[in-house]
Amino acid sequence: MKQIKKFLYFLVRDILIWKSYKTQAVLGILSGFLGLLQFGFMGRFIAQGNYFPMIEQYGGNILAYFISGSVFMSYTTLSLTTFKSVIRQEQVMGTIEYLLLSETPLWEVFIYTIFSRLVFTIINTGIVFIFLIYTFDVEIKMNIIASIILLIITMISLSGIGLLSAGFIMLTKKGDPVSWVYSFLTGMFSGIYYPVEILPKWIRGVSYILPTTYAMDGLRKTLIKGYSLYEIKEDIIILVIMTAIILPIGIYWFRESFNKARKYGTISQY
């Protein structure tokens, strides 16, 4: 019960921050909406008179394929950047020492923050996704519950990489190669904008070591085809296995980076 109250406090805090910077919030929503709208028009243009056998497993509709891929990238970015943004924000505001001295451990702050932002992201992308689906008359069979559960599993999996990223910020203050590299790999090899099968065989193997490849596959099946969690169990099992490997590594790296920054007195430096 205490944890739920804390989470609600963080949620209210983020709402108040959002209301304090209305222009930035509106521009952020518009940017995401217009970006997805462009994908919708591009998909409609490409779809004219064409057939796409490589995405038949997702329904064969190129518009739904593009839009779902773009929506998924929002959650990938959220998972990769939330932890480091918490550290960075507290450093810049000069409040990180007070945060560390508070009764709420840093790991709880991370969890409450990422789930608070997840709520906003689900609402934002959900409204935009549904609007575009109806605007472009895309036929889908959405399993909302399965999609949300899969997204949560995905974000937990990517949290390990997010912690690696936050660890670098603790040490370098600026310049985080982890999230940059992983974002690039996701866009290039995870089937976000085109099927993995289109990649040359000699480099296709990179796709199969990325959690986002399996998350994207499962999400398209739940969002577009209405698959249940059982029907995408292979993707979920692989994601869980990858989480068991990546998350401990991320936790270890962040703890070591944090201890090193504390040892040299550089935690508050930015």
Automatic annotation (TrEMBL):
Membrane association type: Multi-pass membrane protein
State the InterPro entries in the record: ABC2_TM, ABC2_TM_bact-type, Nod_factor_ABC_transporter
Q: Which GO terms describe its molecular function?
A: ABC-type transporter activity
Q: What is its main location?
A: membrane
Q: Which domain of life is it from?
A: Bacteria
Extract the Pfam families matched here: ABC2_membrane
State its location(s). Answer: Cell membrane; Membrane
**Keywords, comma-separated and alphabetical:** Cell membrane, Membrane, Transmembrane, Transmembrane helix, Transport
Residue ranges of domain ABC transmembrane type-2 in the record: 23-257
TM stretches of this protein: 21-42, 62-83, 109-136, 142-171, 178-196, 236-254
List GO terms (cellular component aspect).
plasma membrane
Q: Which family does it belong to?
A: Belongs to the ABC-2 integral membrane protein family.
**UniProt-recorded name of the protein:** Transport permease protein
